[in-house]
Amino acid sequence: MSVPTVSPRGVAETRRMLAGHMNELGLLAIIVILYGVFGALSPGFLSANNQVNILRDGATIGIAAWAQTLVIVAGEIDISVGPMVAFIAVIMAFLMKVPVPLPFALIGGVVLGLCLGSLAGVLRAIFSVPSFVATLGLWSALRGLALFMTNALPVTFDDNDTLDWIGDNVFGLPVSAVVMVILFGVFVFVSRKTAFGRSVYAVGGNANAAHLCGINVTRIRILVFAISGLMAAITAIMLLARLGSGNAGAASGLEFDVIAAVVVGGTSLSGGRGSMLGTLLGVLTITVIGDGLVLYGINSFVQDVVRGVIIVVAVLLNVAASRRSGRHV
Question: 224 CB contacts (<8 Å, ≥6 apart)?
Answer without folding.
Answer: 67, 70, 71, 74, 76, 121, 200
